[in-house]
Amino acid sequence: MTTNVDFGELQYGWELAYQHQDTEQPLWQEAAIPVIDDAIELLRSAGARSVVDLGCGDGRNLAALVAAGFSCMGVDIAPTGLAHARTTAQPAFLLRADATDIGLIDNSVDAVTCFDVFGQIQDPSSLVREARRILRPGGTLVVNAFTPEDGTYGEGEEIAPHTFAYKDTLFRYYDEDSVRELFSEWEITSLYRRSWDDPPHGDFRPYPHRHDNWIVLATPR
Ligand SMILES: C[S@@+](CC[C@H](N)C(=O)[O-])C[C@H]1O[C@@H](n2cnc3c(N)ncnc32)[C@H](O)[C@@H]1O
């Protein structure tokens, strides 16, 4: 195991991945993440109207949330990803910001979603803290996080336990205890596992692979 990798640099791997994608094709896939229907139902039953999607990328999940009738904002650190989202996720607001320091005022949104991002930022506990800050009391957070049984586990260079640098990006995998620890100041209203097959992602991961996820629904205490 080596530790000489710059975590900060790894965030910018995403921007390069978006810059090198085929402009006709979204980097991930056109379809939203398979758990989006669950998320929409949960957000509706929680009475959410405004949703901020953290790490929205090129906007596939944001587009589904817009289509479901939520008032949406997408936040991402990668400007080229956001430029694609401008066409895919109209009329969502788009904000270029670090998801750990968003600049929205406290208690201002009903719900936060965060898909396929959670294990890919340097300090996930800061993201969780920031989500808590912007959520109104009783608001809802929906995230997924890869488990150690995910099909991509072990790819790239292991830089910390359950943490890999893969093509200049960071991948971290969570066991149940580490998920619960991250949300120790939240009420976890639902925590379950779900797997799905993903198609190739351009040059980034050019082969089909299976993801195994924790799905977390939580409310600030
Ligand atoms: C695997 S992609 C997922 C994109 C999108 N959520 C989806 O499911 O299609 C991860 C995204 O997280 C973004 N990201 C990584 N670190 C970030 C940070 N600190 N703040 C905001 N976005 C970040 C990347 O730019 C990238 O768009």
Automatic annotation (TrEMBL):
<keyword id="KW-0489">Methyltransferase</keyword>
<dbReference type="InterPro" id="IPR050508">
    <property type="entry name" value="Methyltransf_Superfamily"/>
</dbReference>
<dbReference type="Pfam" id="PF08241">
    <property type="entry name" value="Methyltransf_11"/>
</dbReference>
<dbReference type="GO" id="GO:0032259">
    <property type="term" value="P:methylation"/>
</dbReference>
<keyword id="KW-0808">Transferase</keyword>
<dbReference type="GO" id="GO:0008757">
    <property type="term" value="F:S-adenosylmethionine-dependent methyltransferase activity"/>
</dbReference>
<dbReference type="InterPro" id="IPR013216">
    <property type="entry name" value="Methyltransf_11"/>
</dbReference>
<dbReference type="InterPro" id="IPR029063">
    <property type="entry name" value="SAM-dependent_MTases_sf"/>
</dbReference>
<feature type="domain" description="Methyltransferase type 11">
    <location>
        <begin position="52"/>
        <end position="143"/>
    </location>
</feature>
<protein>
    <submittedName>
        <fullName>SAM-dependent methyltransferase</fullName>
    </submittedName>
</protein>
